Amino acid sequence: MNKESHVGELLSGYVDSELTQQDSQRVRLHIEGCPTCTHDLEEIKLLRSNMGAARLSHVDDDIWRETMDDASVKATRGIGWLLLVGAALVAAGFVVYEVLTNFASWGLMEKLIVGGLYGGGLLLFVSVLRQRLIERKKDRYKDVEI
Ligand SMILES: [Zn+2]
Q1: CA 46 to centroid of ligand 1, rounded, Å
Q2: Rounded to an integer, what is the distance from CA 67 to the centroid of its chain?
Q3: How far is the centre of ligand 1, averaged over its atoms, from the C-alpha of 129 (Å)?
């Protein structure tokens, strides 16, 4: 085998599929009969796959996925709260508007129901808030003691 006809300089392009059909054919035919170039080709292929593995490191992939999950969970939760609070405000505003515009025309029963709903809701809210504040105070004292 004539050394001049070795395809060493074409092997890199061959692995990357960048050769013309003619060059690619020449490399394929040459490699079949040349252990030296076959060996070089295997080394280039190995180098390429190692580079690929380094680029798509599993650790990086996991961290990326974790970060994405964390961010999407936070975003979803944020949107959920936003929708909930927004809908509650709109509903409350609608009821207040209804009360202000139609209150005079309401019967006693309706006034009692709406008054009960609002009064009860307000009392529950205040009592829950008080409970929370008391618990928080207790927790703070506990932290101080420890
Ligand atoms: Zn060769």
Answers
A1: 18
A2: 6
A3: 83
φ, ψ (nearest 5 deg) of residue 106 = -80, 150
> What are 103-124's pLDDT values in tens digits?
677 788 888 888 888 888 889 8
Domain boundaries in the chain?
A: 3-55, 58-103, 106-146
List the structure tokens of 48. 């390429």
Cα(98)–Cα(111) distance, rounded to whole angstroms? 12
- Nearest CA to 48 out of 19, 15, 24 is that of 15
Q: How far is the CA of 28 from the centre of ligand 1 (A)?
A: 10
Report d(CA 135, CA 138) in Å as an integer. Answer: 5
Dihedral over Cα of 120, 126, 127, 132: its sign: positive
Cα 42 to averaged position of ligand 1 atoms, centre (Å): 13
Q: Which residue has the tokens 């490699």?
A: 31
Mean pLDDT along residues 87-109: 81
- How far away, in angstroms, is 38 Cα from ligand 1 center? 7
